[in-house]
Amino acid sequence: MDMAYSLCSSCRVRHPRHPDVSPAPAPSACFICQGVLEQMPQLIEQALASASNKQWASFMVQTTFSRPLMAREEEIIDGEPLEGVTVIKNQANRLAGELFEKKTAKPYAPDGEIAFKLDFKNLKGSATAAPIFIFGHYIKKSRTWCQHDWACMACRGRGCPKCHYHKQEYPAIESALREIFVPAFGASDGYLHASGREDVDVMCLATGRPFVIELLQPQKREADLPALASALSAKFPLEVHDLKYVQPFWPGTICTSHFDKHYRAWVKADRELTGEDWKTIEAALPIRVKQQTPVRVLRRRADLVRPRHVYSISPVSLSPNEWVLDIFAEAGTYIKELIHGDGGRTQPSFTSLLKTPCKCAQLDVMGVEDAFVQTLNDGPKRFVE
Description:
The chain is α+β, with helices and mostly antiparallel strands. Helices cover 25% and strands 29% of the residues. The chain folds into 3 domains: 5-129, no CATH class; 134-257, Alpha-Beta Plaits; 261-368, Alpha-Beta Plaits (2-Layer Sandwich). The longest helix has 17 residues, at 88-104. It is elongated, with a radius of gyration of 30 Å.
């Protein structure tokens, strides 16, 4: 014998064609929701209270129900035609969205600036601000800074005399950006996403390296970006420019893109360098290099041989004691190894071509060929007062 199910009016609307459904005498007697949908207005008020200190222009809705409730609904669905059936989460999201729009006069959006979370399992309503993403280019004018946070290797980030209790092995661009941007937006934290990275002892100059800073749970959606850039450069050996608000897909795009780069390298050799040596380098151009993973990064990268192209090498100055060269190379080329050869792991190299040990005395990144990012859609302005 088929079982009869008593459902509240909200649940009956979702299951209009079930043959064994009857009205429940009270919402609490509903077989599926047991009256929890009646708590929606209360949860909405809690969520709005949670959002009272945040700026936002659009919202999205997330609902959570207990597993037993979802199982009871599955039992109902198993006994009815699927046409016209709406699951409880979809109904709750729609109804809550309509109520939030009515109460706030702000629109629902799939990628809204704030997420209203209605937890029907624990009867709690809350609000979480969506992250803010800001794109720009950074310039690093120091040879003692790393890109991302790097915990002090002596104390593992706890603080000790070696790191002067700063907890980091080196000052980090990520930490500097966090220090300036997080309080400006009232965010809980911030993370740097960048296209590649330079070594600690390499400066990044000229147009800089593309990056996105992600700010978590911000209370404000906008701040004076030029003023933040000025504050950063006043306190740290860093500059940021081209700052703009971007969409959430930008970090992934920036981090997975591979941009060819321009470098300036200072080259020294174990003997005096001659005009004939320069002719040897010129004759080899463009160079197709095979680079086995450098010894210095083997601890964090697979030991592979990677083909790379060096498109051009131009002299800035040539003297017997040192060459200063502008090098344009394919993304992923290890320039230091191109010069010293890494014990034969990079072929050819300056060392192998000139038949004398060479070294890279100094290196700067002078440009990143990232023009394609200008074609990405920034999306709508994220907050309008």
